User: Fold Phosphoserine aminotransferase from Arenimonas oryziterrae DSM 21050 = YC6267.
Amino acid sequence: MSRAYNFSAGPAALPEAVLRQVQAELLEWQGERASVMEVSHRGQAFIDCAAETERDLRELMGISDDYSVLFLQGGATTLAALLPMNLAGPEQTGDYLLTGHWGEKALENAKPLLKTRVVASDKDGGYKRIPARSTWQLSEDAAFFHYTPNETIHGVEFHDIPDVGATPLVADFSSSILSRRVDVSRFGVIYAGAQKNLGPSGLTIAIVRKDLLGKHGRNLPPIFELQNQSKNDSMFNTPATFSWYVVGLVLKWLKAQGGAAAMETQNRRKSELLYSAIDGSGGYYRNDVEPSARSWMNVPFFLPNAELDKPFLKEAEAAGLLGLKGHRALGGMRASIYNAMPVSGVESLVGFMGDFAKRHG
Amino acid sequence: MSRAYNFSAGPAALPEAVLRQVQAELLEWQGERASVMEVSHRGQAFIDCAAETERDLRELMGISDDYSVLFLQGGATTLAALLPMNLAGPEQTGDYLLTGHWGEKALENAKPLLKTRVVASDKDGGYKRIPARSTWQLSEDAAFFHYTPNETIHGVEFHDIPDVGATPLVADFSSSILSRRVDVSRFGVIYAGAQKNLGPSGLTIAIVRKDLLGKHGRNLPPIFELQNQSKNDSMFNTPATFSWYVVGLVLKWLKAQGGAAAMETQNRRKSELLYSAIDGSGGYYRNDVEPSARSWMNVPFFLPNAELDKPFLKEAEAAGLLGLKGHRALGGMRASIYNAMPVSGVESLVGFMGDFAKRHG
Assistant:
C-alpha cells in the first residue's frame, strides 16, 4: 500500500475511510446478501440509503423544504442545458456572469435554449478577477442569474454571494459545494457534479427552489422535465445507485469532521498555506489571480518557465504528490485541495515546492 | 459471507469475480497510488482503461469502424430523448413499434421532438406478443425505426432482427445486450443502460452508425450533440469513470466465458429450464407471453392467486433467491436471468418453485 496525496481536479481524492468502508462491504452490503451495485433502486434498503443521503445533505447545508434535492446523472454540463430549459421559456432571458471556463460552457449550453445576456466577463483579462459589481449590466427581467462560485480551471472564487435583487441565483457549485458554509436560501438553484467534493463522477446534485420548476411552458421530453425527478425522489428513471451510496458515505464522513464550518476552517488554512508559499517564493512560483478572488479549492500556479513543468511533475510524483498538472486551457500547475485533502498533504506540497525551487532556482 | 442468487431486473447481479477484483484494487488501482474513482479521466491510466473497454466491446459484438461506441450518462431513457434529437429534424418522422413499457416510454420522450408514428402496438393485448410483421404500418420516409428487442417488464423478446428495409433500426438493448450474438451491421443505433448485463447503473452505451450523426439541422446545446461525444471519445465532459471501469471488467469476464456465443447457449438453457418449470407446473405457475416471443432475460410469471405472492417472496428470500417481485406495472413475479446469473441459480429457483407449489398447491 502506498497511497499518495492526490491533487487531481476531478475525479478527485476521496476520504480514505470512505474507500475502506466501500471496500469492506463491496460484496455484501448491509443485510442484502448482494453488493450495493446489485440491489434494486426500488428496494427498501436502497430507498433508505438514498433518503438518508438526502437528509444528511439537507442537514449539512441547511436546506429547507422549499427546495428539492435531486440526484441526477449527466454531469454539471448537462445541468447547464437542463436548467435553462426548466427555468424559463425560449423568449425569456438568462443573465450570465463569466469568471472562467465553466461559466463560458454554461452560457454555450444555454444559448440555443433562451435569450442570454453576458452581464460581465473577465475573459479579455484572462479570468483573473471578478468584475466589479458596479460594472454588471443586469437584464431588467432576467428569469435567472447564472454564475460559477468557484472556477476550477482559472482558480477564481467568490467569497460572498452576489446581490442581484430578486432574480433567482443559479450557481454551479461543482468545485466548492460543502467546502464552506453557504446560505442556501439566497439561491434559486445550486448544482454540482459530485466528483470533486462529494464522491465519484457520474452523479450530479441539484438543489432547486420548488416554485421555480414547471413554469417554462415548453413541451419537453419527460426525462428532461426536472419536476418529474422532483416528484419521484430522483427515481423517475434508474439513478446512479453506487455513486449515490458513496456520496452518502462522504456526507457521513463530513458530519464526523464537523460539517461545512469545520471544512471552511480547514480549507481556509490549506489555501493560506499554499498561497503563502507561492507569494513567498521570491517570484519563483506565480499565481495570477487577484488576491480577493483566489480560490480555496483550486490553486493554479506557474513556474519561472514552462521547461520546468516536466521535471516539477516528475519529481512531485516521485515525492507522492499526484495530479498537479494544470488544465490544458491554462498550462502550468494546479493543486486542487478539496475537502478530502488533509492539511498534511498541502504541507507536503509546500515543502516540496520550496525544495524544488532551491534545486532548480 | 452469504451472497444469494439475485434475480433483480436492474441494477442486477454482477459476476462475483468482477466484484472481487473491484474490491481488491479499490484503494490502489494499477500503479496509480489512488482509487480508480480518484484518478483523472484525462490521465493515461484511465484513458487506456477506457480505450481497452471500447476495444473489448467492439470485439465481443463485432462492431466495425463505421460505428462510434459512446459511454454516456443518463440511462437509456435519456437516450430515448437524445437520439431523436440527434437523428432527425423536427419535421421528420420516427417510427415506433410498441411491444411493452419501454417502447412506450421511448415514444413519450420522442413525441415533443419530432413527428412520430406507432407502426404497431400490442398494448391492447397486454403486451404478450409481437404484432405480426404484415400488420406494421411503416412510414414511407421515416428517419428511423425504434423498437425494444427485449421488454424488461413484459418479458417479450425478439428472437430475430426486424426487416424494415433501408430505414435505420434504433434499438434499446438495455436488457439484452451481449446476451446472445447480434449482427450489429443491421442497426443504425444500439443503446443500452449498463445496469443489467454490463455493470452498475449510471452508464449508458450507444453504438451509433457514424453517418447518422450531425444531420438533424437543429441548434442543440453542445452537451446534447452526440457528435461532440463521438469526436471526444465520450469525454466531452467528465464521464462516469468508475462505472466505465467496472463495465471493462465485466467485458473481460465475458470474453473469458466465451463471449456472446457462449452466453447465448447458456441463456437459452437457463430460459428453457425456467419456462419448462412454469409450463410443467400443471397450471400452478403461469407465463402469459406467446412462446415465440418469450424473453430469455426476464421471465414474468404469476401464482394461482395474488395472496400467494407474499409467502412466495418471503420463502424465496429465505431460500437465498432475491429480487423476484414483479414490476409494479404488471404484478406477480419476475425472474431476471442476465448473463451473470449462473445455471445453478435457475436450477435453484426451479427447485424452489416446485417445492413451493407442492406445499401451497
The mean pLDDT of chain A is 97. Chain A touches chain B through 69 residues (CB under 8 Å). Residues 259-279 of chain A form the longest helix (21 residues). Chain A is about 35% helix and 15% strand.
